[in-house]
């Protein structure tokens, strides 16, 4: 199994994201200002989806998604301006009657008269941004998805080898850092050493990165802590990489270790619910781990492009055996 660094810490960070936390983290990046009282920031966001309440304002409130962040853009504001005072207030009542998480007005548009009073009385925050509606929705959705992503930390070393994200895993002291150092010296790039933070993105993609504290430092027994970026240059490191292959380093034990010999079946290990290709390298003196890691990466790329050398060889072997069997059968009945 892949060993987490400490306790398994995969968790859904979106479970109850306070509006206050959202506001504080992205207020500068998305140019947000708070229009209502700060006390209205106490509600929690539980979904990454965004909603525009124009249809509800017009009167259709069935299936209204009040748990989502509500966005008022130029379309909604312009619609309210077409209504008389009674119609405008009725439209606002249809929306404000729901327990909204928060409401954000884009393009620095004027807050519709009567909106603040209704939302503040229900404890709902109103924010405003000068950004255009569509770019703002894309940026906010991206942040919410990052906040909702499952994460875990794993004890291992991650390297970008030929564009393939390899996680070197194994017991402490088995040689993960030394193997990674050799790969860096051969022109590959270190992502993280010792502690790798894994984040599950959409479409079952896992992204690995180093911790903010360790970054691209590496501990080598007998030497100490070194800085890979300073020693080898910017080309030798990268901030993050998609995790595609886990390479397990295990001490050679003929009675216990079931090392792969043919490679017909692709083995996987599950991390955050995502199956990841895995390979095990038995460790004994004379083993060239860096070259083997490069071969694992290249073999993964071959398979990604539709080539499976082990299965192709197996099929050729089976075809040769069929032909040999047919030839022997023919010779058996040839009595001339």
Describe it.
The protein is an alpha/beta fold and 336 residues long. The protein folds into three domains: 13-148, HprK N-terminal domain-like (Udp-n-acetylmuramoylalanyl-d-glutamate--2,6- Diaminopimelate Ligase, Chain: A, domain 1), CATH 3.40.1390.20; 150-305, 3-Layer(aba) Sandwich (Rossmann fold), CATH 3.40.50; 307-336. The chain is 33% helix and 26% strand. The protein is built from ten helices and 20 strands. The protein has helices at residues 19-26, 54-57, 74-81, 85-96, 115-121, 133-148, 176-185, 228-232, 289-304, 309-332, and strands at 11-12, 17-18, 33-34, 44-45, 50-51, 69-72, 102-105, 125-128, 150-155, 157-161, 164-170, 189-192, 195-201, 205-210, 217-220, 224-227, 240-242, 245-251, 268-271, 274-283. Strands 12-10-11-18-20-19 form a six-stranded mixed beta sheet. The protein has a five-stranded antiparallel beta sheet with strand order 1-9-13-14-17, with helices on one face. The longest helix is centred in the C-terminal third of the chain and has 24 residues, at 309-332. The radius of gyration is 29 Å and the shape is elongated. Residues 3-13 have low confidence and may be disordered.
């Amino acid at each position: 199994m892949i060993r987490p660094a400490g306790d398994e810490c995969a968790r859904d960070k979106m479970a109850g994201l306070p509006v206050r936390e959202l506001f504080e983290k992205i207020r500068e990046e998305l140019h947000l200002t708070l229009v209502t009282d700060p006390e209205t920031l106490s509600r929690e966001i539980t979904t990454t989806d965004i909603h525009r309440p124009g249809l509800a304002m017009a009167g259709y409130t069935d299936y209204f998604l009040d748990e989502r962040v509500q966005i008022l853009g130029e379309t909604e504001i312009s619609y309210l301006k077409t209504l008389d005072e009674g119609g405008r207030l009725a439209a606002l009542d249809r929306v404000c009657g729901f327990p909204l998480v928060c409401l954000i007005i884009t393009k620095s548009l004027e807050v519709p008269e009567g909106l603040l009073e209704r939302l503040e009385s229900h404890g709902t925050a109103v924010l405003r941004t000068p950004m255009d509606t569509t770019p703002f929705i894309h940026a906010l959705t991206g942040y919410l998805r990052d906040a909702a992503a499952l994460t875990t930390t794993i004890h291992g070393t991650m390297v970008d080898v030929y564009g393939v994200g390899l996680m070197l895993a194994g017991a402490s002291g088995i040689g993960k850092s030394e193997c990674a150092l050799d790969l860096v010296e051969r022109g590959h790039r270190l992502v993280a050493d010792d502690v790798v933070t894994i984040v599950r993105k959409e479409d079952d993609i896992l992204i690995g990165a180093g911790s903010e504290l360790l970054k691209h430092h590496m501990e080598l027994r007998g030497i100490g802590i070194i800085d890979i970026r300073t020693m080898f240059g910017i080309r030798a490191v990268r901030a993050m990489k998609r995790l595609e292959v886990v390479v397990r380093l295990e001490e050679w034990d003929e009675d216990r270790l079931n090392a792969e010999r043919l490679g017909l079946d692709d083995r996987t290990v599950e991390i955050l619910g995502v199956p990841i290709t895995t390979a095990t390298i038995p460790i004994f003196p004379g083993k060239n781990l860096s070259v083997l890691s490069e071969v694992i990466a290249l073999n993964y790329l071959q398979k990604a492009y539709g080539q499976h050398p082990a299965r192709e060889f197996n099929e050729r072997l089976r075809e040769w055996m069929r032909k040999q069997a047919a030839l022997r059968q023919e010779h058996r009945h040839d009595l001339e």
